[in-house]
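Usage example:
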Amino acid sequence: MAEAAEGRRGRGGRGGAGGGAAARRAERSGGKAVQLPYIQRKINTFEILDEEAMEIIERNADTILAEVGIEFRDDPEAISMWKAAGAQIDGERVRFEKGMCRELMKTAPSQFTQHARNPERNVEIGGHNTVFAPVYGPPFVRALDGVRRYGTIEDFRNIVKMAYAAPAMHHSGGTVVEPSDIAVNKRHLDMVHAHMTLSDKPYMGSVTAPERAEDTVAMSKILFGDDFVDNNCVVTSLININSPLVMDDTMLGSLKVYARAGQACIISPFIVGGAMSPVTVAGTLTQVLAEAQAAIAFSQLCRPGAPVIMGTFATSISMQSGAPAFGTPEPSQVLYGAAQFARKYNLPFRSGGSLTGSKLPDAQAAYESANTLNATLLGGVNFSLHAAGWLEGGLVSSFEKFVMDCDQLAAQQKMAQGVSVDENGQALDAIREVGLGPVSHYLGAEHTQNNFKTAFFASTISDNNSFEQWEVEGSKSAPERANAIARKWIEEHEAPALDEGIREALDEFIAQKKNSMPDAFS
Amino acid sequence: MAEAAEGRRGRGGRGGAGGGAAARRAERSGGKAVQLPYIQRKINTFEILDEEAMEIIERNADTILAEVGIEFRDDPEAISMWKAAGAQIDGERVRFEKGMCRELMKTAPSQFTQHARNPERNVEIGGHNTVFAPVYGPPFVRALDGVRRYGTIEDFRNIVKMAYAAPAMHHSGGTVVEPSDIAVNKRHLDMVHAHMTLSDKPYMGSVTAPERAEDTVAMSKILFGDDFVDNNCVVTSLININSPLVMDDTMLGSLKVYARAGQACIISPFIVGGAMSPVTVAGTLTQVLAEAQAAIAFSQLCRPGAPVIMGTFATSISMQSGAPAFGTPEPSQVLYGAAQFARKYNLPFRSGGSLTGSKLPDAQAAYESANTLNATLLGGVNFSLHAAGWLEGGLVSSFEKFVMDCDQLAAQQKMAQGVSVDENGQALDAIREVGLGPVSHYLGAEHTQNNFKTAFFASTISDNNSFEQWEVEGSKSAPERANAIARKWIEEHEAPALDEGIREALDEFIAQKKNSMPDAFS
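Running the assembly step on the lines above writes:
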């Protein structure tokens, strides 16, 4: 219960793990990839809801929680826990008095540290911070030959390598693509292994079955040590709600494993608006709020103080084809609104990314991704899954788009620094010095020379040369330039050093697990 | 001076032009193009500067105006006007006491109507409104064959036709591409003529020489009538400042013509940051503020109450190549900051657009354009030039990008509507009705059926179909789909009806002007 008492002050402070242990972890983590630290935002958030709108939506969510309730499906333990907590039980349906869930949510930390095996790559989740993580979940890949096919473990490893190389990618992610060449019941082992060995950035765990979540925690204990894992967050995992208003036994099972292990869960209603929620933004927010409150409250029943991230994943829909649409205004409005509620509840918030429905890394992909990514930053998202590589509504991991998106993440990171008005930022003497144009200009000014290396964001993808120069260099499009960078990142990858004993223990754990059961492919 | 007294209340009210004249204008304006009205924003603005930063920047701008001053070059009349107004004169250099320019700026209207010949297409410039206008100024074009070449008057007319067809394009613009097949000293006549005859949306005038500005006003008087033009804004024109800190005789000449005719000028420092201004955002804003204040104050010396738009066009720079870069964080920060000052001064604000340095309508183009366009909307820009069609740092007008950008403008227009929390928006009964998933869903709900036509932005460019369907339809990229739409818009263009007497008078004016002087090609 010390955990619970400490919860609201955040878990970050404890995570320091001073002295010998930290030094040892640093020693066995030799990663050389240049990285920007997680974003510490110095800019405002954009708010789309006024006070009245927030009151209406929260009141309606309370009404839904009290009248309709949430179904906790196929999980008698969850029902017992809710009964003990004083909720109203009707079979698998759980109803909540006004404010009950919000009261339970209060033990969740407002901010916490997710530790990486290289402490320099730890991330702070919550508050004014933003952490970018790669695309999650696609079965297909468009790798460097541009062919669309099912993903493999080799693709998976290559994406982990790219995420390791990208400076503005703060996290190694989870299922960066489904490795379909490995049995469904065993692939989580290889995925977690890849994150642990090819990268030293923080990673996500398996949620496809409770025992796979257990495996993730066990492997994390090999990597970090039992005590460290029990006292610190080292895994963040994605728990999707079956909207509308259902939690199933798979998600509840994994949620229980992680929360009880003190590990972080992103609890996200996954909503195709108009299909899984009302067709309006306010209606969708109402449902998101009801679902998220019930699920987050449940995480605190599992272990008060367990770190949790309030998530929202919403799309609009093409009413002709029924297909989800991305980068459109309404999902951005849902994001902005849900972020306001997360801030109100002092909870870290997950949403956004570089989302698109396009089949190609073309202009559609970029417009839609940029729209979502702008909302991600300005909305104050704390943890952004799918920040790079997402294509075709999440069906495809694109290597070229991964690299292009990472360039945009670096741009957003610069944007988040805000405007400096210190003496150097004011540049008053430079204006006095250069005086009048147009003959005089700033290129040669001392102030310009002193600042030019960091003053402007420098894209690694955009070509701003003259047309003639661009022609000489082969008239390449942005994805072609990205392709070359992706190749370089993968070819030049150097795995960060890892203690041999840990490596052997991980290999042994995986071999034992794989030998303990036959392959399953569904 | 009645003009001046009325200034701060806005000129919109007077623009109604009730009774016979309006009816006659409506009658002779038969345009059938479906159009969204200018945007009336219902969402907040995003602010990047806090109160302290604004104070520092304004104080520094005052210091620059007082110490360094602004050069009014090759225009003795301007110097005399400043002398009479009490500024400190030193040759062509004009210095201003603290607050002097801001005091003069106060007669400029905070909002005004720019009239179109079809009153349904009038736009309100200022306040909570946003008006989108096409790309301005490129010498080159990428038309529908994709070849990059110098623009012609045919290209010009085709872009005017596209702007007329695009529902979220509120304005016909100005130099949508340079028609290089027409003499430099005569092309303005054909450009203004194209806007007046192929469209009935509002348009911009020539600024390349004072006499061409006079021609624009004269042609506008033929179209609208002398009295109407004298009492209402029917032209908005772009006056660029020669940063740093210089106004030249060309821009001053056109500014005087338009301001004295009661027509609107956008007064924009055009800044490649690090070259024409300090390399920092705060330094650039300081210079923008000094330049804009002096130029706007000058417009009010020409005619107190003349409508004017405070403009800012800023880019960052590639410090390797020296080329300007677009869609990067720093220009967005300049935009957000300058918008805050325009609001503080109760002036309409121009900035943003769909800017990019890309040579192709590819992912680079779309990322960069979307970044700028998101800032345009959230920053509260009132008049956005270059909202569609801009490519290659403004050297190229791209037909395909024009169509793709217009789709994004429509998305922003939807975004600007904000979140409705009326009973329909709340959708509480729908949530009650659908209840629990995942079997139950919202697609068939009555509330969804009642709302689906308008609930979600429907892109005309994005393909959200299944991969298989997309393949069947030819595996097209976004620019390929845009190409087909552009062809349709141009082919199906039907010029809005125009009174035959007016058409003849315009033709006669142009013929007379063209015959009065030899062709000049520089």
